[in-house]
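Structure tokens please, single chain.
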Amino acid sequence: MKASLLRLYRQEMRSTVLLSYPIVIAQLGNVLMNVAANMMVGRLGAAPIASVGIANSIYILVAVVGMGTLAVLSPQVATARGRGDLDECRGLLRTALRLSIGMGVVLAAILLGLAAVFEVFRQDPEVTRLARGFLSITAASTLPTMVFMGLKYFTDGLSHTRVAMVITLTGLALDVFMNWTLIYGNLGMPALGVTGAGLAVLITRVYMAVAMFIYLRTSPVFRPYWQAFTGSIRPLLTRVLRLGLPGGFQYFFEVGAFSGSAVMAGWIGTAQLAAHEIAISLAALAYMVASGNAAAGSIRVGEAVGKASRAAVIRAGTAAILVAVVFMSLTCLLFITANVPLVELYIQDNHVLPIATSLLVIAGIFQLSDGVQVAGLGILRALSDVNIPTVATLFAYWIIGIPLGYWLAFNLGMGVQGIWYGLLAGLTASAALLTVRFYVLSRRIGFAMDN
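Here you go.
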């Protein structure tokens, strides 16, 4: 019996990894765009890399509400597919398009407003000047970003995860090329510095949205989903918003904690902010792998819900958590043992380097918590459980993490390292709360106990 159960879990973990790796590559591609920009801008000095970092932190804080809202599409599509409901899948495709366009417009307006009043973040004047211009340009990329993500979540829910992967990788190549051309003024172009990095982002995101839409419209694989949908999408739109918006705020509370940490690091100094952004950039690479695993876990749990199998729900959720633990253990070891060479990929500044390496050690310690908590959010989303996890993330990051980090940094004088110990506490609390929630809820759902 134990051998049979172990075999089932091994198979489930293998299925999760096979489903997740294209999602992971796509997620990494998106983060590598920021990493490439940071590395290239970092050669211009501490102020440019700090300005791009703080502007990206603000951008992601706002945009993640839309991404988190749209993310509920994947398990919804997977559940409809598990039931064999083609008509609902068609309706969800139209819902994805309409919602992504609407959210793109609204979020872009918010970002432009924040760029106009960037002084409220109380950063160094030069950082503020550069960050305002960068954020103003990247705000315009929000609409194509939301369209791409909405269509990506739809295709992921159908387990066609390679589509977004290929488009993201080609987008990464374009982004690196445009950064090299526009930041430094290569190939006869003017050297635009931070402004060039912003234009590279805009051009790349427009390309990715257009490529994704054209592929879905022309591929025979997706042709059935564009056929006539009988009925109004209003019920589906209402359901996605009801389930998705709390999910968007889950991400908002988590990303907001990191963005708030960036703002506090800027209060300490430009070197501390630059170090914070370098360490966050590296930690984000690991997080995106864990996030891709969470997305795969969400799809697997959604399919199990569609088949009304409680045992399959528990297996799929547990597999996602175990995969996160294995991978994040490896990144923990890497960050702790190779922190110096990793940071030197970004900057050689003797003021920034020792601070960033110390932060990367703390990032290594919180890898396990980070991987488990994002897996927990994904698998709970597939169970349509969004309100309790939203409260849990609010509590973990904004009642524990940020206040503790502020107290350690400014009251105890631990500086930016104190801010990061607060993040460690918040992530650990979130991981514990979400894991417990999944196992309590999965045993209450009204499915037959099967194998």
